[in-house]
Design a protein that fits this description.
alpha/beta; five-stranded parallel sheet; five-stranded antiparallel sheet; 7 helices
Length: 237
Amino acid sequence: MILSCAIIDDEPLAANMLATYAQKTPPLKLIGTYNSAITAIRDLHEHPVDLLFLDIQMPELSGLEFAKVLPKSTRVVFTTAFERYAIEGYKVNALDYLMKPISYEDFLTTVNKAITYFEEAKRQNLLSEDQFIFVKSDYKLVQIPLNSILYIEGFKDYVKVFVENNEEPIVSLINMKKIDEFLPHPQFMRIHRSYIVHMKKVQMIDRGRLVFDKVFIPISESYKDEVQKYVDDHTLV
């Protein structure tokens, strides 16, 4: 995966160092280096980049202010010499935060984090478009439409996928963590250490349990708040 990137820093030495890092890092394609947010506005709106290394303390327009007007597709990595800005940086949904002076090792760690993020986003988009998954079962790859899945029950080394109009679940040798990370969220939600449910298929919520026909699945304390928020967002009051 190749990520387009840009750099904004009012300190020429800092900007040049990041540019050098980017140019010797194969997954990155450096589109531009700017010494102020003002000069970068038009370029980065007309030609958005995937990743922006953005200094926080700059004259005229700070990095925190500039991040709020960027296209949603651009992920920001803040760069600063002042640790107190970290919390503010994450409030604008920064991908990462690099403290100056920035080592190449820290830079690479952030790039790898960005690659993981964009690969996951790409996979989630693909799932949203195709609306099916393949799982290994009995030495075969079985296609399962996402819309047919009711819930998934996890055991130590395998899962059971319960689908509509199937008397028996599809059994696959995969752990819950992996399948939870793979399925689109919040369409599919982990509600218990042993259960992932298709929220659109829930028929009823009864005393802290999700109901599928005659099956009652408990909501564990660890996932209660997240499930409650989802339910509140879909409740007519």
